[in-house]
Amino acid sequence: MSELLAPSLADLLRAGTPVILVTVADAKGSTPREVGAAMLVTTERSFGTIGGGRLEWEGLAQARKLLASGSMQSRVELPLGPAVGQCCGGHVALRLRRAGATELAELKAAEAAAGAARPLVLLFGAGHVGRALASALAPLPLRLRWIDSRAGEFPGLVSAGVEVVVTDRPLAEIAQAPAGSAALVVTHSHSLDFTLCSTVLERGDFAYLGLIGSRTKRAKFERGLRELGIPGERITAMACPIGGTGLRDKRPPVIAALAAAELLLALAGVRTEAAAPKAAQERAA
User: Which of 64-73, 81-90, 121-130, 247-256 has the weakest average pLDDT?
Assistant: First the structure.
């Protein structure tokens, strides 16, 4: 589940609004969403998604039919091609339940477990690119810690799910991060950038390190990192400039969009341009 449904369900229950929890109970073949995807349906509104298109339309219709009938639950089997004219061609089973305290507790537990299993991303820097990155990463299935020593640089309203950390000890964040975490370094200071990058690379177990910068900055950092004795393969894996060199667009939202895609691929273990040898990056520059 990418959208948190438990808070919405809690609000609906407090208001006494009848609501159906629709969950993908089984999915075979090519389907829009995976088992566990869910949405909440009232007579007038819906929250979350089970994949959109005709599948979701059918889920909405069946949920409102259940609301009107007064029944507590039902199960709907949908072969997507013949049943709803959806080209996926798989088979989906939907479980529909009139939601109450039990369903709320189950949602809270499932969402808490899913949140704890998400990879940790450390975002260092709250300047223009940092703010764009925070907005781009907030909706994604990540745990995002946004770190800067300057409290006044953070916006007054931060996206839900983003944890703001005001500290003058950023290296402690790296030390405490679990293996497989990711770091994006976009601070106001080149010396701080270098310290953060060298600390991540010395650990050697981060899934991704992205650094704001240029080919010149990368070359300078590489020399310093080699002097520290950091293995060459770790230095090569550092993404700088973040987002690759395919687009020469320096607007923060564009950088953030490209870097977000690069980060997701790295966390999934997919080799990207950012992890390509330095010579290949220079040919593309």
Answer: 81-90
Two tokens, residue 39: 């949405």
Provide φ and ψ at 111, rounded to 5°: -70, -35
Q: What is the per-residue pLDDT across 141-182, written as a single tens digit (0 to 9) for each? A: 999 999 999 999 999 889 888 999 999 999 999 999 999 999
Q: In this model, does residue 3 exceed pLDDT 80?
A: no
pLDDT value of residue 280: 36
Residue from 195, 187, 207, 228 nearest 274 by CA: 207
Which amino acid, 239? Answer: A
What Cα–Cα distance (Å) separates residue 14 from each residue in 63, 67, 109, 160? 20, 18, 19, 22
Measure the CA–CA gap between 263 and 252, rounded to whole angstroms: 16
The alpha carbons of the chain give a radius of gyration, in whole angstroms, of 23
Nearest by Cα to 133 from 106, 155, 166, 108: 155
* CB 191, CB 217: distance < 8 Å: no
199: nearest Cα among 218, 180, 173:
173
Task: Report the alpha-carbon angle 177-178-184, nearest 5.
Answer: 50
Whether 107 contacts 21, CB under 8 Å: yes
pLDDT at 272 (0 to 100)? 52
Q: What is the mean pLDDT of residues 235-262?
A: 92
Residue with tokens 């839900």: 160
Q: Containing H/E element for 79?
A: strand 73-79
